[in-house]
Amino acid sequence: MNCTIEIENIAGISEGIATVESGVNTVKASNWQGKSSFIRAIETAFGTKTALTEGEDEGHVAVDIDGERHEVRLDRSGGTVARHGNPVLEDEYDRLVADLFAFLGEDNAIRQAVRNGDNLAPLLTKPLEVSDINERIADLREERDAVEIELAKARASADDLVSLRKQKNTLESELADLREQEQRFDDAMASDAREELSDLRAERQRVSSLIERLENTIERAQEKLTDTHEEYESIEVADPADVEDGLAEVRDKHERAEQDLELLQSVYSANKRLVEEERLDLLTDVDHGLLGDAHTCWLCGSETTADEIESQLDEVGAKVLDLREEARMYEERIEELESKRDDIRDQQRRKTDLEDRITELESTVSERSQNLSSAKQRLETVEEQIAELETEVEDVDREISDIRSDIKYKEAELEDVVDDIQAAEQAATTVETLEEEKEQLSQEITQLRTRKDEIQTRIRTEFDNSISTIVSMFETSFESARLTSEFELVVARDGREVGLNALSEGEVELIGLVTAVAGFEAYDVDEVTPVMLLDQLGGLADANLETLADYLDGRTESLVLTAYPENSTFGDHRIDPAEWTVIVAAQSAGV
């Protein structure tokens, strides 16, 4: 990112202009010269601050970023400051994540919460509250409410079946009484047969639905099993013993090369010093002649010259360089073999996981197949019983063909009830479909809710990765720190937990920055803003400040941080506030 920033009446800067370039930009100046005010100006341009100078009614900041101009105008009215124009960040979500995780001044909420020992959960999860997750959940809930209404109607229809079937049974009983008077056979038996037939038909429907569900379940499980088998077969795991043997051999060679290098280096350095300081007389006799000094080699006793000795030392020096290069090659080979060993272990773990999954799927297929076989056998039995009962009922119907008019009336009434039952049964059949739809909507709602858990997990992972690097780079007094599942900070030193008050100011600031960087990575803030800001890092030593800049460099296009004149010069670009018009501290806001 390359941009020019024009400032008027922003924080403690009355007037100023500066350029921010890609890489590390250092604002280097003493107190009250506008360092922090420049940071406030950038935040104002991006839309996260309204840092109008105290006592001024108007101000503005303009930014040209890669040819596109953004201008923010501020005015004071009724004790409040209003913002106008087109800030770099228009979206509320973008401003929030930038303010929390990229604009890391002294008043950054994450840094302040770490200093105060506050729980970090409200801040680290706040971006989720302004995203569209809640809106999507609300839409799904509304859709689920509509399904629940339809489901209630379907269940009501299913409840009506009870009274309708009771009415049907009553009519059949009345018909049985009438038929008893007209027939010479036992209509009760026919009524029992019809009722049994109705029950069997209902059971047939239930078993058929069960068979369909089992077949679908088996099909899906078989597809997953096939995919899992294919993945399992595609993984070829090399023999780890070969890698371990090779690694041990290279490590031995590396150790020998290092030992040889150390030994030869000591010989070379000592002799080189004797020659450079012209102290060969400490080891051998020196004959000072007209044509030059003659020496006796202190190793072989033969006569030689200083030039010949220096020539021999140069050869030894070349050998030292060769050994150093050889040691470096062994180091690279060790790293290569260790990486290959780790890859093999990952493949072994994945293959074990796939084996467990295959066993689980095979068990599922076997179990569902047994259930399917039993269901099909039951369906076959029910079909046979239905066929027998249907034949029996048909025989009875032929015997009562000359039923009287009142019986016909009852039959007509019965038919109406049967029609009502069928209609109710049709409505009731949608219960299962609606329940499945409701369950699917509930699962989608749950998945959206779990996004928060995924973000929290990623934040903790990024924090662990960053803190491990920070501990190594800065040689902190604590050996580790972590975020609990409730986003409480836990710091360990000398193998036990300690409070933040036991750490130095600089270490607390480092932990605050690491926490913000974890959020920066988890929410992909580099896709939102091209700049990261750092200010008020007085708790860090000069060397640590430079190390921090190196650590953060590359996470965004541009890193802008403040430093004092006594700090070492570092970074790709220095921003000099010398030509800015800066208001004294008592008259400014956020200098």
How many individual helices? Answer: 13
Count of beta strands: 17
- The Rg value, from CA coordinates, equals 42 Å
What's the overall geometry?
A: elongated
Strand content: 5-15%
Structural class: alpha+beta
Helix content: 55-70%
The string of secondary-structure elements, in order, is EEEHEEEHEHHHHHHEEEHHHEEEHEHEEE
Question: What does this entry look like structurally?
Answer:
The structure is a single chain. The protein is α+β, with helices and mostly antiparallel strands and 591 residues long. It is built from 13 helices and 17 strands. Helix 3 packs across helix 12, helix 6 runs antiparallel to helix 7 and helix 7 runs antiparallel to helix 9. The C terminus is likely disordered.
Helices and strands, with pairings:
Blueprint: E1 3-10, E2 13-20, E3 23-28, H1 35-46, E4 58-65, E5 68-77, E6 80-85, H2 92-101, E7 103-104, H3 109-116, H4 121-124, H5 126-130, H6 133-182, H7 187-234, H8 240-276, E8 286-289, E9 292-296, E10 303-304, H9 306-399, H10 405-428, H11 430-474, E11 480-483, E12 489-493, E13 496-498, H12 505-522, E14 531-534, H13 542-552, E15 558-563, E16 573-575, E17 581-582
Parallel strand pairs: 3-15, 3-16, 7-14, 14-15
Antiparallel strand pairs: 1-2, 1-4, 2-17, 4-5, 5-6, 8-9, 9-10, 11-12, 12-13
Brief write-up:
With 591 residues, this protein is of the alpha+beta class.
Keywords:
single chain; 591 residues; alpha+beta; 6-stranded antiparallel β-sheet; 5-stranded parallel β-sheet; 13 helices; elongated
